[in-house]
Amino acid sequence: QVQLVESGGGLVQPGGSLRLSCAASISSFSPNHMRWYRQAPGKEREFVAAINWSLGSPYYADSVKGRFTISKDNAKNTVYLEMNRLKVEDTAVYYCYALRGNAEYWGQGTQVTVSS
Predict the structure, then answer these.
(1) What does the pLDDT read at residue 63?
(2) Positions of the chain with pLDDT lower than 70, given as ranges
(3) What is the pLDDT of residues 70-79, one digit of tens each?
(4) For 64, left (φ over 0), alpha (ψ -120 to 50), or beta?
(5) How far is the C-alpha of 94 from the C-alpha of 55, rounded, in Å?
(6) Residue 13: is it exposed, middle or buried by C-beta count within 10 angstroms (0-12/13-18/19+)?
(7) Of 12, 20, 71, 115, which one has the fewest beta carbons inside 10 Å?
């Protein structure tokens, strides 16, 4: 059973930075791609960023483009989300997602709170 374990969330002031990590619990995970989603209170879960595992091609939601960077470490089976110039509206629970063949996996979520 594959598990995705997220870490790195926390409280940060507007304009600050955080880096989220999501590690797969098995070696040689090799997903098709991995994504980050987020869900703010009272809102639907929304796409944030994705990365193709073999090509490394990143994709971003317009709301985070230029501020967030998704990256991966194949050897560690880990995907990262570097978040810079954070805004209050970035406050949400951030979820990691992976697609491997026809199987989908979700992490448990990590809270990011941007507040002064």
Answers:
(1) 97
(2) none
(3) 999 999 999 9
(4) alpha
(5) 24
(6) exposed
(7) 115
